[in-house]
Amino acid sequence: MISTLDSLLSSQAARRRALGLIATAGVAPLSLLGCGGGDATTTTSSSTTDSSSGSTDTGSGSGSGSGTCSTIPSETAGPYPGDGTNSNSSGVANALLLSGIVRSDIRSSVDTASGTAAGVPLEVTITLVDSSNSCAVLAGYAVYLWHATRDGEYSMYSSAVAGENYLRGVQVSDANGQVSFTTIFPGCYSGRWPHIHFQVYPSLAVATSGANDIKTSQLALPATACAQVYGVASGYDTSANNFGNISLASDNVFGNDSGVLQLATVTGSVSEGFVATLQVGVAA
């Protein structure tokens, strides 16, 4: 990790902000490696690169570049990437090759599948910056984003949704280095803090396999936003119990580096939907 990340993680102020956000969550044993969840069918060769009132949560990893920024930690893609690096019960699972996968609204399936994922609306905006070049915005880069359903299942893998490919999509960063996805608030499944996976590619042309990405990481959702959704919004009942047994610090992915650079800023409510933003530093 570059020295600026070491500096940020050693900052007492940053640690207090991160710990304050997770104060409402409990601690549970690390029952899963990397990213489990769902009732998955066959997987092989997992990829490992490198209340309804309104609220506002601020994550230390979000905001615009100021000339100095840190490279976001690399994390596991987990067992359900759908990026061509492993298999499901039907063979190699690669959503990147599906017709229609380049889209901003990822709530419905594409190609030959037609299901739609139910859940509280969530808009996710990622801003890509070059951590090796004064945080210059990175335009023209591709981002593949995916996450679990409100039930904690992954399309293409979990038996109940193996025939779907929703909650997966690709976008190309604009002149401001931004990509935005319209999706749902993911559920919390046993053993993992609520999160969203993403991979960064230098261009759309090479975004055909996880073997070509330049960064694989995960976005963490703040505790207060999760508490608004879980056990309150329809369909998220099981998430409330799972969320009560995990914390950001005890999570086997984010706990390794406090999740400071991966904690998104989230605003909104169950009734109006949520907006999550995160600045992602990549050494391009």
Describe this protein's structure.
By secondary structure, the chain is α+β, with helices and mostly antiparallel strands. The protein has a single domain, classed as Aromatic compound dioxygenase (Protocatechuate 3,4-Dioxygenase, subunit A, Sandwich), CATH 2.60.130. 11% of the residues lie in helices and 25% in strands. The longest helix has 10 residues, at 12-21. Residues 1-34 and 39-65 have low confidence and may be disordered.
Overall number of strands? 12
Question: Segments where pLDDT lies below 50 for 5+ residues?
Answer: 1-34, 39-65
> Could you tell me the strand content as a percent range?
15-25%
For the record, the CATH architecture stands as Sandwich
Structural class: alpha+beta
* SSE topology string: HHEEEEEEEEEEHHEE
Helix content: 10-25%
CATH superfamily: Aromatic compound dioxygenase
Averaging pLDDT over every residue, what do you get? 84
CATH level-3 fold name: Protocatechuate 3,4-Dioxygenase, subunit A
Largest sheet: 6 strands, mixed
Number of domains: 1
> If you compute it from the alpha carbons, what radius of gyration comes out, rounded to the nearest whole angstrom?
17 Å
Note the overall shape.
globular
Number of contiguous helices: 4
Distance between the termini: 14 Å
Task: Return the CATH class.
Answer: Mainly Beta
